[in-house]
Structures are given as structure tokens and as C-alpha cells.
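Course assignment 3, question 2. Fill in each field.
Student: A.L.
Task: Predict the tertiary structure for the chain below.
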Amino acid sequence: MEIGLYVLPGLFVLAGSYFVAAGLLTVIRAARFAERAETVPGRVTGVRPVIRDRGLPTLAFNTMAGKKITTECPVETGHGVGDEVEVLYDPGDPADARVAGVRSGGMVLVVSGAIILLGALLVLSALLILHLLVGAWDTAS
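Answer field:
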């Protein structure tokens, strides 16, 4: 068996690992944001379409200090113009705001990456076992 057989599954191991790491980083960042964020009522004043009926909403709200903020949420939502929403914002950077209750999608990356990673590891294991069996067979004959 050639080493080339291991390249494609190896690339899938790298891709799966990347997705798991990126997903975990996204989940950790979202949790840290939620810990420091303040919650205020707000309104969706615009939506930049991204995928079909989902888009990045423009949020208008007043901070706890009374400052008026209008900013685009970096996470896609299904909210439309005029919708009343709860806004989470970073008190140190009020332009960094998200709609409360909207998930970042990090767990989707973790789960899909884990599936890719486990599948690739199974294929690599099967190839390695096959390589060992064929090698043992060749030396026995």
C-alpha cells in the first residue's frame, strides 16, 4: 500500500479538527460576550439579506447610559424590519450588539466537525489495519 492512500483521509482529519476548533472558539466567544453584555429593548430598522429569509439585522437601541446606537448584528436572524427585540450589547463597545436568544451556530460547527473527524479516523484506522494485514500476509508467504 502506498502512503498516498492516507492523504485524503488525513485531509479530512485536518478539516474536521478545524471545524471542531472553530466551533468551540465561536461558542466560547459567544458565552464570554453574554457574560459581559447588558440587555435592553431594541428595534430592527433594516435587514441586509444573506440567505433566503435570513439576514443581518440593523439594530436601534438605547444603552443603559441613554446613548442611542444603530449597528448591524453580526449574527443572522429571521427578524424583519420593525420587529421589537431584546438586544445584548457590550458596554465597552455598544456597537457590538446581538439579538438576545439567537445562537451563533458554533455547535453546528462542533458537531459537523466531530462527524467528519470521526469518519476520517475510522477510514484511517481501516486503512492502517488493512495495511498491517496485507503486510503480515506478504511476509508470511
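Instructor remarks: Strands lie at 38-51, 54-62, 68-72, 84-90, 93-99. The first strand starts at residue 38 and ends at 51.
Grade: pending
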